[in-house]
Amino acid sequence: MIRDINSVWNNCLHTIRKNVNDQSFKTWFEPITPVQLSQDSLTIQVPNKIFYEWLEEHYVSLLKMTIRKELGDAGKLEYQIRTAELQNGRGVNGDNRGKVSLAEDREEVNLGTPDIKNPFVIPGIQKPRLDSQLNPIYRFDNFIEGDCNRLPRSAGIAIAKKPGATAFNPLVIFGDVGLGKTHLVQAIGNKVQENFPNKSVLYVSAEKFTNQIVQSIKNHTTNDLVNFYQMVDVLIVDDIQFLANKTKTQEIFFHIFNQLHQNGKQLVLTSDRAPKDLDGMEERMISRFKWGLSADLTIPEFETRMAILESKMMREGIELPDDVVEFICFNIKNNIRELEGVLVSLAAQSSLANRNIDINLTKEVIKKFIKEINKEITVEFIQKLVADHFQVPVEKLAGKTRKRSIVVARQLSMYLAKNLTNKSLKSIGEMFGGRDHSTVIYSCNTVQDLLDTDPAFKDDVHVLERKIKLSLNEK
User: Could you say which of 296, 312, 339 is where a domain stops?
Assistant: First the structure.
């Protein structure tokens, strides 16, 4: 029987999706293209060597299981690299396979004539230690990990262990304002200084770099500035989108970038968008940014926001009731800085007005940060709505019956309660007959699987969500 390569790979993706989180799936599996299928071998094309190394290190067991499920026990997976040569490539069966010919469009760049001297280094004398411009409070141990940032954080830790010697060079971290880009890149710099005291680390904003270029042009000291940056072992540039449409600044940064990269130095950059979306940036610059890893910081999920806020509370010595913490994290979703702002404001309001921190005070403070506080949805309301939709007695949702129609309604009610209320998992479980938080988690995972596989069930959920939104508008 002749099998279609896309069907085989889609079947593989269906299995993989069930075993990884959404962010990992989008990052590491959606960009893969199937290119060749034989009786017992599937060849996939990945964008670069980083993908190959990451898949082999983190997902080899999952891939092996998936391929053998589709192709049988003798099934093998082989790789093609789209843009860089992979020497001694090997498939997940352990054989040496998949060697392909690739070429990167790297240019040789001459930064100036050999007789230009570095004014900051005297021959025979060790170069002075640079002021790194790093904030010591930004560290990995107070940067909370979640699905929203696991990839860039992991890459940052790898860089801190071997700056300039990993495939993550440059590392470009992108995402919206307030998601922790500056914290993460400065944590990388601080860890490098801790691990390698003799290495020069420099953090600079793109705006400050541009101002340095302007001054150097005015003072005819551009070569001195370039030579200064060539001293750096780890260069961290924040907000590179501000280099857009600045032709001369981009030209000088291009030369600095190339020289550092060719000498095995590490570059770490941040941006508010992916390199491919940087308008006003020269193509050769964008090409350089794509040499390494581009990793995005996304909006943290509720549990990660809770962990971030609790970490900040511990650092600031502030205590908040559990219901206040959950209420803040339910309403402040898009900006980590706002979490800290709410925390500081609550502490100030409580102290100045001599008021206890409770839900009412929290609502007053949050109004300054968001236009409208999410109207409260109760678990009881969700239970009644779901029970009516599935035509089951609402009291059965808290009972012990295992009848399928009631089990599905109960699990869906828990799923909606977790996503649409500010209740903790423990609180939700208690409202369904005293069940524990692990039952709520299992129910949510079961509902998510049904959403991915059952179109009719997905339609039911959409109908219920619309009813909830309509009911809020009526209040």
Answer: 296
pLDDT at 234 over 90: yes
CB-CB contact of 209 with 246 (8 Å):
no
Residue 40 pLDDT greater than 50, yes or no: yes
Residue 25 has a CB neighbour count (10 Å cut-off) of 15
Distances (CA, A) of 473 to 148, 178, 185, 420, 421: 31, 30, 42, 15, 16
How many other C-beta atoms lie within 10 A of the C-beta of residue 114? Answer: 6
Residue 147 CB partners (closer than 8 Å, separation 6+): 21, 22, 23, 24, 298, 301, 304
Question: Among positive and negative, which fits the CA dihedral 59, 264, 201, 207?
Answer: negative
DSSP symbol at 177: T
H or E element, residue 200: none
33-37 and 293-296 as β-strands: parallel, antiparallel, unpaired? unpaired
Single-letter code of the amino acid located at 450: L
Q: How far is CA 244 from the centre of its chain?
A: 24
Q: Are the C-beta atoms of residues 194 and 263 closer than 8 Å to each other?
A: no
Q: How far apart are CA 52 and CA 50, in angstroms?
A: 5
Whether 286 is in a domain gets the answer: yes
Specify whether the backbone of 120 is left (phi greater than 0), alpha (psi in -120 to 50) or beta.
alpha
Task: Give pLDDT, residue 54.
Answer: 75
Encode 135-157: b = buried (16+ Cβ within 10 Å), e = exposed.
eeebebeebbebebbbbbbebbe
Same-domain check for residues 448 and 309? no
Residue with the larger pLDDT of the pair 44 and 88? 44
Domain that holds residue 400: 379-474
- For the chain, the straight-line distance linking the first and the last C-alpha, in angstroms and rounded, comes to 60
Q: What's the pLDDT tens digit per position in 378-428?
A: 888 888 888 888 888 888 898 888 888 899 999 999 998 888 877 788 889
290 and 314 fall within a common domain: no
Tokens representing 298? 């996304």
